[in-house]
Amino acid sequence: MHRSMAAPPPNGPTEALNNLIKRIKRVGFGFRRFRNYRVRVLLYAGRPNWDLLATIAPR
User: Fold this and answer.
1) Which of 7, 8, 11, 43 pairs with 28 at a CA distance of 20 to 30 A?
2) Would you call 52 helix, strand, or coil by DSSP?
3) b/e string for 33-42 if b means 16 or more Cβ within 10 A?
4) Can you tell me the distance from the alpha carbon of 8 to that of 14, in angstroms, rounded to the nearest whole number?
């Protein structure tokens, strides 16, 4: 029990999300706008907050 508390947290969930984003990028190579790519990533990652989605724009 003590060793599990001293160990760093696993990076599995982060790696899974990175893999998902890379897969979407490969499949959606023809996205014309970053907004479309971003919406696709958010849809696959979970339920996006649609109220905030329209207000946040990439720089």
Assistant:
1) 11
2) helix
3) eeeebbebbe
4) 14
